[in-house]
Amino acid sequence: MWKKLALLSLSLWVLSVAFIGYRFVFGNAHEVDKRMQISLAPEERELVLGEMRLLLKGVKGIINGLSQDDFKVVEASASGVGMAMAQDVNPALMAKLPMTFKKMGMGVHQSFDDLAVKVPSLNQKQILTEVDRIMTTCVACHETFKIVESK
Q1: Which fold has domain 28-149?
Q2: Domain locations in the chain?
Q3: pLDDT by residue (tens digit) across 29-73?
Q4: What does pTM read for this prediction?
Q5: Largest interatomic CA distance in the chain
Q6: Beta-strand (E) ranges in 4-139?
Q7: What is the DSSP string of 99-137?
């Protein structure tokens, strides 16, 4: 009898771990209009979209700094939207996001940090090339995912 109970317990544990692993990798996304729809609570959606708006403000700051030949502004704008910006994200929210979305987002933050470090050794054209590369990830993310409020 105890062997059956042990096997049942082990089976339930394996299923639980598999489900949690699946949710961690895929979040709660499903495909709509050729994009993956991510359903979030209104405050979670606003948090994610607010972070995207801050990234866009960072790009604007970089362009502004370049237009004024002020590389300190470029460096500050890039580092301001780096990994430090992404540190205080709620683990429950992160569990709802697909792994691809998380990788893209963390990659963008890291790319801004890398750019901030390289700014003193780059010219304007090289900085714009780096920003273009980063923005390619942003565009790909917006083409891949759609964030909606859960009902």
Answers
A1: Four Helix Bundle (Hemerythrin (Met), subunit A) (1.20.120)
A2: 28-149
A3: 555 578 899 999 999 999 999 999 999 999 999 999 999 999 999
A4: 0.77
A5: 78
A6: 29-32, 35-40
A7: HHHHHHHHHHHHHHHHHHHHGGG--HHHHHHHHHHHHHH
